[in-house]
Structure formats: C-alpha cells, structure tokens
Design a protein that fits this description.
2 helices; mainly alpha; 90% helix; rod-shaped
Length: 165
C-alpha cells in the first residue's frame, strides 16, 4: 500500500473536514457566548460615550448661559456702583456748599460780634477818657482856685497840669 503523504498542495479530506467542523463549532460558540456580550458591551460603551458627549455639550451651553448671566450681573453692578459714586459726589458737593455757607455765616457772626465788642470798648474808653478829663479839669480848677488869682501862677499851673496828662 502506498501511503500518500499529505502536503500543502494535496490536503487530506478528513483533516479538511475536521478543520472546517472545528472552525464552525468555534464560530458558533463564539457567536453565542462571546460576540453577543462583546457587541452588547461595545454598544453600551458607545451609548455611554454618546451620552457623555451630549452632556458635555449641554454643560458647555449652560456654561455659556452662566457666563452671559455673569456678564449681565457685572454690568448691572458697575452701573449701580457708578450711580452710587455719582450720588456720593453730588452729596459731597452739596455738603461742601452747606459747610461753606455755615462757615461764612459763622464768620459774619464773629465779625459782627467783634464789631460790637470794638464799639462797646470804644464807648468804655470814651467814658473813661471823659472821666479822666473831668477829673483833670476839676483838679486844675481846684488848684487855680487855691492860688490867689495870680495870673502867672495860673499859667504855670495850667502848663504843669497839661504836662501831667
């Protein structure tokens, strides 16, 4: 008997059938137990990635809305701050004007009071000067009368009294 030796060019039919049977059995087993769970896992992962991308897009949109709202709030705050600053400036100018008016009024009152005091002091000095003048005149008349109506003595006495003043 001749035994044929199998080669690559002349395959054995039994080996080929067994190879094909093993291939289809492994294919069936893989499809039943491995590919379906793998495909289901891939589908689940794809859905998860798609949902994550959608959530990221939603988050970007919300972030843009928040940025717009933040800008609006900042603009409103700037407007309020400018309004408050302007009102403060106006109040400051008004207060400065009021203080200036009060100061002028107080200065006028002080000046008026000083004028009154000066006038009062003038009157006191005049009264004192009148008293001194009267006393001097009385003293002079008294000295003149004490002397015996001597004209030379009277002149000397008057000159002496004037020097004493």
């Amino acid at each position: 008997m001749e035994t044929q030796q199998a080669s690559i060019l002349t395959p054995e039919i039994t080996l080929a059938c067994l190879t094909w049977a093993t291939f289809f059995t492994v294919l069936f087993i893989l499809q039943k137990f491995a590919w379906k769970p793998i495909l289901a896992g891939l589908k689940k992962r794809e859905d998860h990635i798609r949902k994550s991308l959608e959530d990221a897009d939603k988050a970007k949109a919300q972030l843009a809305e928040v940025d717009a709202a933040k800008g609006k709030i900042l603009d409103e705050a700037k407007e309020r701050a400018n309004t408050i600053i302007e009102q403060s400036r106006k109040m400051g100018h008004e207060l400065a004007g009021q203080i200036e008016q009060r100061a002028k009024k107080n200065a006028q009152e002080i000046i008026s009071s000083a004028h009154q005091e000066i006038e009062g002091e003038r009157e006191r000095v005049r009264d004192a000067l009148k008293k001194v003048s009267i006393q001097t005149a009385v003293s002079l008349a008294e000295k003149i009368l004490k002397e015996n109506l001597d004209t030379k003595k009277n002149r000397d006495l008057i000159n002496q009294a004037i020097k004493d003043l």
